[in-house]
Amino acid sequence: MSNQDFRNLHQGPRVLLLPNAWDAVTARLIESLGAKAIATTSAGLAWSQGYPDGSALPVVQLIAATRNIARVIRVPLTVDIEAGYADDPDAVARLVGRILAVGVVGINIEDGAGSPDLLCEKITAIREHVAHLGVDLFINARTDVYLRGIASGEAAIEEIIRRAARYRAAGCDGLFVPGLASADAMAAISAAIEVMPLNIMAVPNLPPMDKLQKSGVRRLSAGSSIAQAALGRTSQLVSAFLAGTMGEMFDVSADYDVVNKLFANKAHG
After folding, report:
1. Domain 3-224 class?
2. Spatial CB neighbours of 103, under 8 Å, sequence gap ≥ 6
3. Tens-digit pLDDT profile for residues 117-128
4. Most buried residue among 45, 141, 208, 247 by CB atoms closer than 10 A?
5. Alpha carbon distance 248, 130 (integer Å)
6. Neighbours of 21 (CB within 10 A)
7. Contact at 8 Å (CB) between 66 and 93?
8. Residue 14 DSSP symbol
C-alpha cells in the first residue's frame, strides 16, 4: 500500500481505526486481524524496551524497534515520535529521515508542555527535509491542550483551533487531540480545521462510532490502551500462577502454531 493510500484512508467513508502496536509480534497480529494501518504507541514501545514513556527511549532503540515492526507488516505504519526526542528542529528532521528509511509513512509529533512555536519549527524542518529526500510523509500534529489541562471548555476549543491553524501553516497533515471526548467539541474543531483530518484517542465513554463520524472524526487511535490492557491481563495471570492457579492461562491463549505462522517467510525479510 502506498503513502497516498494511507492518506486516502483518512477520507472515509468510515473512521480510520488505528490499533497501536509496540513490537513486531503485536504489529503482525494486528495486521492479521484486518487493520488497514498500524500506529505505534510511544508508551508501549518504550516499556517494551525497558524505558518509561516521555522521551526517555534512546533513538537507536526507537529506530531498531520500528525497523522490526516494518519488516513483518505490509500495511502502512505510522510512528509516534513523541516531541521528536530533541529541541533542535534540524535534529528532529534528521531523526524523521532515519525513521522514514525503515519503511514508515507517517509520524505523530506532539507539542506536549512545550511552546506551539517550537512544534511549528519542528514541523517546518521535517517538511523541508522530507521534500529534499523526495519522500511523502503524513505528519500528524498532536496537541496536548486537554491532556496537560492547558485550558478547558470553550477556551480549550479555541486554543486547539489556534494551534491547529499554526501547525497546518507549518506543514502538518492531520490534527491529533488526545483527551477530546465531547461530540460537540469534536464538531466545532473539525469544522474549523476543514481539510485536516481530526484524530482522537480512545477513552472510556466515547460517543458511538456513528456519532464520532458525524462529528467530523476521521481517525481513532487506541493509544496505549491495548498495551495497558495486555499488561493488566498479564499481571492477573502471573499473580494467579504464583499463587498456584494455572487454568486461566489456557482459556484464551493464542494457538502456538497460529502465532508461529504469522511470521512464515519473514525470518530473513
Report:
1. alpha beta
2. 67, 70, 71, 77
3. 999 999 999 999
4. 141
5. 49
6. 28
7. no
8. S
